[in-house]
Amino acid sequence: MNYFEPKSVDEALSLLAKYGEEAKVIAGGTDVMVDIKYKEEPGCLVNIKKIPGLGAIQENGGNLRVGSLVTIREIETNSIVRERLPVFWEACHQFASLQIRNTATVGGNICRASPSGETLPPLLVLEAKGKLAFADGEKSEPFDSFFQGPGKTTLGYKGLLTEIEIPYPPNGSRGVYLKHAVRGAMDIAMVGVAVLITPDAAKSGLQDVRIGLGAVAPTPIRATKTEAMLRGKPVDAALVKEAAAMAASESSPISDQRSSAENRRWIVEALTRRGLQQSWQAATGKEVA
Amino acid sequence: MSLTINTMINGQSVSGSAEASTSLLEFLRDTLEYKGTKLCCNTGECGACTIIYNGMPINSCVTMAADAIGAEITTIEGLADGDKLHPVQQAFIDTGAVQCGYCTPGYIISVKALLDRTTKPTAEDIEEAVSGNICRCTGYNKIVDAIHLAADRIAGRA
Question: pTM of the predicted model, to two decimals?
Fold first, then answer.
């Protein structure tokens, strides 16, 4: 196996261009090292951790910019994230164990493109974007279109995620990230649901609502039909119930060792209902009646 | 492709060679003969291989040996001062927080890292610090007792 520690994004990109499908990018290593041991050694390992400039968290106007090499623990302990992006903070807080959070990078969690990736439903509802570097230039891509399937992204074999840009949610909005797993720590989400709502001025209806679902489709998804159905409607228990059932029907889970597909749909329904209730209460001070 | 790894372990400069695919755990145990750090799940789930890496507890089984270059590492071998055990080690003995003992080095390292951060850990701090360590024998209560005792002794409260 060839091994490289590029010192710049350009150097990394030229290695990816040279080795193509043989190349595997490694940062924290918490997923890739397991693959090397139990699946297959790549022909070429490109360790990007020595590239300077990818490890900062910076405020930039109404956005937070997070370098792809920032660890989950650095996000979890960042006071701006906790205050301005609590939905994202919650996912990082619930992420695996302290040992893993100290090592795993946010870029790795994103590029792994696991349907159950912990940070992904929050990044979808926050409408975050990735800064992608390619040999022929940079582009900014919303995560909505970034994920192509399990382990597949629009980076293909030739791009590198260098930064994520997360806009602060609208004033007055509130959200939650709810994860269902058998064991709290270390367990991969059976289902993850992120909800972000903005009530209207009268606090009787929903001006905006975003629902992100993890581990229930080939990629993390937004429940767009449910969101469209909810938008502009006055909130009551019947509406929340209808939305929860609709979100479950928008999911397309598989059965695996963690859960059956049927059970996953029930959990989507339960977590969507709870997520809407909790977000509504946090945003308006009123329970859903 | 063989790499030369120059690193600092328990305050001493050490050097060895490793493949790029070698984990830090394999490098510690098989090349440098630091056998106190344990191999168990080998997938970053059980915490038996926990070491302190630049001040933070990490799972050495899913870390590249190459990442040890220029790093400062503490393993279980680095805790005792001659014959005098570290307060965390002594507290695990005194409270009976050990049965088979296989998970113990990982626990002790996680707890040392916690008590380096704070000597007044809350119940939540303790849960966070050791929720990445699995023990199949003790039922965890005695481990929590040991953590409280070690914290009290380090802070001079006991």
Answer: 0.96
Query: A26 to chain B: which residues are within 8 Å by CB?
Result: 64
Give the closest of A1, A97, A102 to B21, CB-based: A1
Return the residue in B21, B49, B125 with the most chain A beta carbons within 10 A, the one to mutate for interface testing: B21
Give the pairing of strands B2-9 and A57-60: unpaired
Rounded CA gap, B36 and B29, in Å?
8
Q: What is the pLDDT of residues B101-140, one digit of tens each?
A: 999 999 999 999 999 999 999 999 999 999 999 999 988 9
Listed in order, strand segments (DSSP E) in B36-100 are 50-53, 56-59, 72-74
pLDDT band for A183, please (50, 70, 90 cuts): confident
In DSSP notation, A174-241 reads EEEEEEE-SSSSSPPPSEEEEEEEEE-TTSSBEEEEEEEEESSSSS-EE-HHHHHHHTTPBP-HHHHH
Assigned architecture for domain B2-78: Roll (3.10)
Tell whether domain B87-154 is in CATH 1.10.150.120: yes
According to DSSP, residue A70 is labeled: -
Residue A189 has pLDDT above 90, yes or no: no
Question: Chain B residue with minimal CA distance to A36?
Answer: B21
Kindly state whether B132 is in contact with chain A, defined as any CB-CB distance less than 8 angstroms: yes
Distance (Å, rounded) from C-alpha B56 to C-alpha B111?
11
Contacts of A92 (CB under 8 A, 6+ apart): A72, A73, A75, A76, A81, A101, A106, A118, A119
Mean pLDDT, residues B52-71? 98
pLDDT of residue A125: 98
Q: Report how far residue A271's alpha carbon sits from residue A273's, in angstroms, rounded to the nearest whole number.
A: 5
Query: Residues spanned by CATH 3.10.20.30 within chain B?
Result: 2-78
Chain A hits for B44, Cβ within 8 Å = 30, 33-34, 96, 99-100
Smallest Cα distance from B156 to chain A, Å: 27
What is the complex's ipTM, to 2 decimals?
Answer: 0.97
pLDDT at residue number A62: 93
CA distance A94 to chain B (A): 10
| CATH 1.10.150.120 domain residues, chain B | 87-154
